[in-house]
Amino acid sequence: MFAEGVVDEGWDVLSTRHAVTAIKGANTARWFAIDYTHEGEKGLFMGIVGFAHPYWFWFYGNDHLKNSSDRDYLEKLMLGIEVQAEAE
Question: How many angstroms separate the CA atoms of 14 and 49, rounded?
């Protein structure tokens, strides 16, 4: 189950983690990671959702866990994002 009442055949969520995080240039941001299987194959969906006035942003990556160093690289990439937003 992905969210309350939302399901999709062949997908199973193994674990979810999320936390408030600091992203340079953002007013607020939240990091999340979801370990899942799709038709028996393990995967990782990780991202950042945040707000930098006047815009919301969403960066994400999907890793099929073929290389053991990918998880650390993806997390480092996500937590190293900087945003710059300018209102028109």
Answer: 21
C-alpha span between 19 and 39 (Å, rounded): 28
At 35-85, the pLDDT tens digits run: 999 888 888 999 999 999 999 999 998 888 778 788 888 888 888 899 998
Q: Name residues whose C-beta falls within 8 Å of residue 24's C-beta, 6 or more positions apart in sequence.
A: 81, 82, 83
* pTM for the full predicted model: 0.76
| Partners of 59 in the β-ladder | 48
d(CA 63, CA 72): 11
53 and 28 Cβ atoms separated by less than 8 Å:
no
